[in-house]
Amino acid sequence: QVHLIESGGRLVQAGESLRISCAASTNTFSRLDMGWFRQPPGKEREFVATMNWSVGRTYYADSVKDRFIISRDNTKKMVYLQMNSLKRESAAVYYCAAAFNNLPNYSMVRAVDYAYWGQGTQVTVSS
To answer: What is the DSSP string of the chain?
Structure first.
């Protein structure tokens, strides 16, 4: 079983940066693909970023590419999302997700790919 707890969400102004974190409680963290999703108010959950467990390959949604960075620390069992140049449309509940992936060339961008989810952390962006 994998438990995920997000933290770091808060109110920020447009243009600012924010790093949110996800702590995993599992001994198999280094073998997990980790992803970030978000759900804006009144909208569906959407993919943000993912990082492969074996080679550290990353993949981003077009809407956040070049502004957001996903990273992980396997010794601390943590995954991070550095968000730069935040926009009002970045406001959402951000969810951390994890999954075992046996396909090294497949980037997990669909919510159904992930078996484990955190409770989410709220990011609010004011203008």
So the answer is: --EEEEE---EEETT--EEEEEEEE-TTGGGEEEEEEEE-TTS--EEEEEE-TTT--EEE-TTTTTTEEEEEETTTTEEEEEE-S--GGG-EEEEEEEEE---TT----SGGG-SEE---EEEEEE-
